[in-house]
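Thread amino acids onto this structure.
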């Protein structure tokens, strides 16, 4: 995900460094301004660990690790490996892949605050009522 955002920043010119060179009349090679190699995991990427229940890692960082039900996976073992390689860990091996948008949304933990019946008021507060007793919408 970090590589994708970095690539988009460079494409739209939001980055201070530009590695794109123009081709000369002799037809010299043009370097790419974006990284299109998504077959290797790099630092800052997220990976899906496929086991009985798939799990999304934190952004990969050297020296860090992701805890699983049966052990953990060191991020150093993931960084530099290819997509669909098996990662060695303390426990059974797992397969690595890049997350699809659906997997990213489904596997990302959320902080949810439930609203219980006793949390809401049976009628709107007085400051929201207009003189004709209709509810006034307040923007934040």
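Threaded sequence (140 positions):
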């Amino acid at each position: 995900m970090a590589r994708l955002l970095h690539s988009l920043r460079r494409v739209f010119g939001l980055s201070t460094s530009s590695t794109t060179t123009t081709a000369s009349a002799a037809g010299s090679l043009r370097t790419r301004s974006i990284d299109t190699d998504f077959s290797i995991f790099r630092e800052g990427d997220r990976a899906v660990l496929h086991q009985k229940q798939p799990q999304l890692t934190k952004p990969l960082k050297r020296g860090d690790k992701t805890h699983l039900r049966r052990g953990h996976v060191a991020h150093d073992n993931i960084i530099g490996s290819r997509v669909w390689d098996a990662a060695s860990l303390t426990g059974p091996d797992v397969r690595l892949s890049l997350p699809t948008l659906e997997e990213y949304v489904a596997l990302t933990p959320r902080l949810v605050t439930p609203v219980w019946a006793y949390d809401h008021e049976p009628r709107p507060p007085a400051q929201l009522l207009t003189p004709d007793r209709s509810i006034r919408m307040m923007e934040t």
